[in-house]
Amino acid sequence: MLKIVFAVIIFTTSFLFSADDTTSKFIKQRIEIRELKKELNEFYNKKEAEYKQRKKELEDLLSKIEKEKKQIQTLRDQNLEILQDIKGEVKTKTAKIYNGMKPKVSAEIFNKMIDEGNIEDVFDIILKLKEKKVTLIMRYLSVKNASLLTLMLKDYNNKTKG
Questions:
Q1: Does residue 1 sit in helix, strand or coil?
Q2: Cα angle: 9, vertex 10, 16; to 5 degrees
Q3: Sign (positive/negative) of CA torsion 71, 74, 80, 84?
Q4: What is the pTM of this model?
């Protein structure tokens, strides 16, 4: 019986020491997990701060780009307006010159311009001329050129009416 009691005491002591050893391992693991969790939180917070900083930088850059884009668009619009004014002024002056010319001379110039492939320029000038002057010039244009300009005038009138 003494042997049994002694065996029970040894077994219980071993069990208590092994339980104590298991408990200390468990506590150690809990501490390691807490440290790991703390490191992960610090890493996450650091990355979150970096992300927010980069996002702010990108938003600032995008804002700057949008502002410059608007400035460029405004400048482009202003330049187009100036260019239109210049073109209109040139066409008006050109029309005054051709209105003052003899129809036969104007027709010769227009025939040459059309033959060189500048029918659009001639058409732009004709649009600015007085109607009576255009009628007189048409008499002296080649039949081919007069018919081309007549078709262009017809199309132009249809577009402006429709």
A1: coil
A2: 85
A3: negative
A4: 0.46
Residue with tokens 């460029």: 72
Alpha carbon distances (Å) from 152 to 7, 40, 122, 123: 121, 76, 11, 8
DSSP state letter for 142: -
pLDDT, tens digit, 9 for 90 and up, residues 84-134: 767 666 667 777 887 888 999 989 999 999 999 988 988 888 888 888 888
Q: Determine the distance from the C-alpha atom of residue 105 to the mean position of all C-alpha atoms in its chain, rounded to a whole number.
A: 50
Q: DSSP state, 68?
A: H
Q: Which residues contact 113 (CB under 8 A, 6 or more apart)?
A: 119, 121, 122
Structure tokens at 28: 């150690």
Distances (CA, A) of 19 to 4, 5, 24: 22, 20, 9
pLDDT at 102: 92
User: How many CB atoms sit inside 10 A of residue 107's CB?
Assistant: 20
Task: For residue 33, report the phi and psi dihedrals to the nearest 5 degrees.
Answer: -65, -40
Residues 79, 85, 90, 95, Cα dihedral to 10°: 150
CB 16 within 8 A of CB 24: no
